[in-house]
Amino acid sequence: MKYVDNKVVLIGTGAVGMAYAYSVVNQGLADELVLIDLNERKSRADVLDLNHGEAWAPHPVSVEFGDYTDCRDAAMVVICAGVAQRPGQTRLELLETNLRIFRDIVDRVMAEGFDGIFLVATNPVDILTYATWKFSGLPSAQVLGSGTTLDTARLRFNLAQYFEVATTNVHATIIGEHGDSELPAWSAASVAGRSIHRRVAQHPELQSDLDRIFAATRDAAYDIIDAKGSTSYGVGMALARITRAIMRNEKVTLPVSALLEGEYGHEDIYIGVPASIGRRGVRQIIELDLDDAEQAAFSQSVASLEAAMAPARQDGTLPAAE
Fold first, then answer.
1. Strands ordered across the beta sheet of 143-145
2. What is the pLDDT of residue 1?
3. What architecture does CATH give domain 7-145?
4. For this structure, is 59 an active site residue?
5. pLDDT tens digits, one per residue of 245-280
6. What pTM was estimated for this model as a whole?
7. Annotated catalytic residue: which of 59, 178, 203, 266?
């Protein structure tokens, strides 16, 4: 790859983009952060505002307003641009409009010779990450989405509140579509070192509480969007966590949107699964030992995404599988 070691270009400076930008600066995750947005006046003000916090950042981050030529030597391009989800609207309903936007964005990035890592946040994130891979022509390892990283953080928080333990003592993962068909991998989950399955076996009444906790996790975005118009802080921090894993070559496992090539019995689909993340993006997909019900639910989630993608594949908006 040909890039500046720790340069990040952010495309889209709305609520999610700026929550991410703030997290990058506040955590000192890059040496250089470039903002690109159609609203130049507002974005230049964001640049100034962020730079005013440099004195208190753990690592100085140079923040600038730029253009697509800045992608030429960037280590990462993070895409938060697109039409936002409206109250009552599903993520999949955003697809047609955002596909057109992404075709233009990715074409302009690649025209500059970009050879770094794309990180996608715009919804529907799984399909738009797949589209970014197809539009860019980059190896799939260099294209990933936020996937179910935010959903997993929500689940861990909710379980920590229920069991009255630290969030860091909760190990549980949401997999599948970042959306209505996602599912919790309870068979691989534990709280304070005790497996969820063992807890349920000893206390069967716990399952109804877990079902309620998952429903609250899955539907959290709808409640937040209805109340304040968008989600931003949680996903911004999730994107920052992925960025840290890449920039520092952590090889940590995070539930991102990654390409399946036979894992979990599926292929040619981007979907939220645990993956080892390092300096070159997705190092490997981690296959959890799902039980039969979880595998069936995961396959249904794949089918939901494939059905949503079908019209765009048929009309040529989204390149079909090779």
1. 62-65, 32-36, 7-11, 76-79, 117-120, 143-145, 252-261, 267-278, 281-285
2. 46
3. 3-Layer(aba) Sandwich (3.40)
4. no
5. 999 999 999 999 999 999 999 999 999 999 999 999
6. 0.95
7. 178
